Amino acid sequence: MINSSGCAKFHLSLQDCYMDHKDWRKCKTEMINFNKCMNNRQI
Predict the structure, then answer these.
(1) How far apart, in Å, are the Cα atoms of 10 and each of 1, 24?
(2) Which Gene Ontology cellular-component terms appear in the entry (predicted)?
(3) For 6-26, what is each residue's pLDDT tens digit?
């Protein structure tokens, strides 16, 4: 689903951030970008 949505790069960025920090709160920018992408692709 993520790959076909066109949002994979945002998802990978979010995963990378979490792996680096182990804290979702430090990944707000990545979360917002991924969320915007997914919201724009809802059918």
Answers:
(1) 13, 14
(2) mitochondrial intermembrane space
(3) 999 999 999 999 999 999 999
